[in-house]
Design brief:
- By secondary structure, the protein is α+β, with helices and mostly antiparallel strands.
- It has one domain: Alpha-Beta Plaits (2-Layer Sandwich), CATH 3.30.70.120.
- The protein contains two helices and six strands; from the N terminus they run E-H-E-E-E-E-H-E.
- The strands form two sheets. The chain has a four-stranded antiparallel β-sheet with strand order 2-5-1-6, with helices on one face. A two-stranded antiparallel sheet has the order 3-4.
């Protein structure tokens, strides 16, 4: 099992969420976040924005679904065919155990 954390442009979130839902992955947590990547923010005139608004999506998936979910996120979060700076990052980490709070049962 894996936890996939993706940090993407806010304007791309609805497309990513729709594509994940259509592919059978409705379970997701979404958070507003602020930060910067390698581009170190942006300068507009004399104003520098070093913390840019992004959205973080978290989704726990089985081993066999990991690559499909990553591809869906990339395909729907990328700006244009080749992408551009600021499109985001995807972090994938193994998950040892998951419990459902209401039932106390282990597993997705």
């Amino acid at each position: 099992m894996y936890m996939i954390r993706s940090i993407i442009r806010p304007e791309k979130v609805n497309g990513v969420l729709s594509a994940l839902l259509e592919a059978g992955f409705p379970q997701i947590t979404k958070m507003d976040v602020f930060g910067r990547g390698k581009q170190k923010g942006i300068r507009v005139g004399s104003v520098e924005y070093d913390e840019l608004p992004k959205e973080m999506l978290l989704i726990a998936v089985s081993d066999e679904d990991k690559d499909d979910v990553i591809k869906i996120i990339i395909d729907n979060a990328r700006t244009g065919e080749k992408g551009t700076f600021g499109d985001g990052k995807i972090f994938v980490a193994p998950v040892e155990t998951v419990y459902t709070v209401s039932s106390g049962k282990e597993g997705l």
